[in-house]
Amino acid sequence: MIPARPSSDFMREKVLEIHQRLAHAYGDIPARSGSDPLCELVHTILSQNTNDRNRDLAFARLRSRFPTWEAVRDAPAEEVIQTIRPAGLAPSKGPRIQKILRRLTEERGELSLEFLRELPLTEARAWLTGLNGVGPKTAAIVLLFSLGRPAFPVDTHIHRVTRRLGLIPPQTSREKAHALLEKIVPPELYYPFHIEIIEHGRRVCAARQPRCEHCILRDLCNHYQGAKTYGTQNT
Fold it and tell me: Are residues 140 and 184 in the same domain?
């Protein structure tokens, strides 16, 4: 018989304990001042399938080469592609960014995502994920980081660490993890918990060789304990 998934109350208590330990280990996470949501969206698209350094280089080149988003929108596609080439997948990302800018112009008459502040959260999320190349993670980043709205982004570190901890079932896809984690993480902790889990994933809970002997969450971790909460061991 496959054991039942722990109750939501149990999982919320576990989240709170994890947060308290990580906050003590890594320090308080300073409040993030909201960035421009359109900048955040383009920045996040550039980050897909590349590292932070290449993403930042491509974004800086884009902003230096084209002084306005209108200039990016109206530039020849090849110029945009060449400008953002350090981010990788430029032949896909460049036209994708330009298409978003054109859609904004057609629908809103201006190159701004500020209107998302006023939409119900489900509608704002749906508008973003309706854009080509924008999935749940990218949408959640824009909503949380720029607009201060309750969305929990799940990147590769968060997906890996929360599965190992048993916060989500082991076979949960990254896309489905967003909704599951939003149910058990208190909204006021979305931002600090997101940063804490990423930091822990980088410092301790690495993909190939997790440093379990140095982990302050060992007693809470299904992976370390060898527990089979969902009928199979977490990896």
Answer: no
Nearest-angstrom CA–CA distance, 103 and 109: 9
Handedness of CA 150, 153, 158, 162 (dihedral sign): positive
Task: Tell me the per-residue pLDDT of 37-74, one tens digit each, with 9 for 90 and over.
Answer: 999 999 999 999 999 999 999 999 999 999 999 999 99
Question: What positions carry a catalytic annotation?
Answer: 137
pTM over 0.70: yes
Q: Which residues constitute the domain of residue 109?
A: 37-146
Sequential DSSP letters for the chain: -PPPPPPHHHHHHHHHHHHHHHHHHH-PPPPPPPPPHHHHHHHHHHHTTS-HHHHHHHHHHHHHH-SSHHHHHHS-HHHHHHHTGGGS-HHHHHHHHHHHHHHHHHHHSSS--GGGGTS-HHHHHHHHHTSTT--HHHHHHIIIIIT--S-----HHHHHHHHHHTSS-TT--HHHHHHHHHHHS-GGGHHHHHHHHHHHHHHTS-SSS--GGG-TTGGG-HHHHT--TTSS---
Q: Do 52 and 141 belong to one domain?
A: yes
